[in-house]
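Checklist before submission:
- one chain only
- standard amino acids only
- sequence pasted in full

Submission:
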Amino acid sequence: MRTIKRLNKLRYYFFTAISILLLALIFNFSFTKTDGFLILNQFHPVWLDIFFKYITNLGDGLISILAATILISLQKKKKAMAVALAYIYSGLLIQIAKRIFHLPRPKYFFEQTLFPYTHFVEGVSTHNQNSFPSGHTASAFALATVLVLVFKKKKISFCCLSFAFLIGYSRIYLAQHFLIDVFFGAITGIICAIVSYHQVYDLKLFRSAKLNKRYKQLKIASRPTAI
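Returned file contents:
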C-alpha cells in the first residue's frame, strides 16, 4: 500500500511529531490547567508578542485554500485535492468537537476561576468559548503533514514540522488555547492528512470519470481472450 510505504519513508517526520506530542501530553497531566499554562507563558518580550501575533495567522484555513489553489495552477491536481481534503476533514472534525465539548478559552477560564492573568497581546481578539480543540493547530498540522506526504521529500519535513509546532504554540502564547487543545488539534490534523492522502493516492476516489473509463478499457483489453 502506497500510504504505508510513504509513512515508513517519512518515519523521521512522524516519529518526531508524535514524540513531541507525547511529551506535551505528559506535561499536560503533570500540572493543573492553570499551572501548565503559566509555565508555557513565562517569557513575553515585545518582539515575541509581535512575532506570534502574525505567525498565528498562518494557521488560518485560508492558507490551506491558498496552497491548494497554487497547486492547481501548477497542474498538481492530486496534490491540491489532498491538501483540500485534509483541510476540510480537519475543519469539520474540529467544529463538531468544539460544539460537543464547548470548553472555555483561557481568558474566560481565568475570569471564572478568579485568577489574575493579565498578559494579553494587544490587537489580538480573544474569545470565551469553544477552546477544545484548536482549529488553527489542526489546520497547520494537516497542511504540514499532507505537504510532506505528497512531495516525498525529507528535506521539507523539518520546515513543515517547525511551522506546525510554531502555530500550535502561538495559540497558547496568545492565550487563545490551552495545551490540551493544541495537542488534540495536532493529532486531528495529522490523522486527516494521512486519510486524505490515502483516499487520493491509494483509493483514487477522486479520479476523473475520463480516467476511470480509460482504466476500465485497459483492464478489459488486457484480459486473455477465450479460445
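Reviewer check: The chain has a mean pLDDT of 91.
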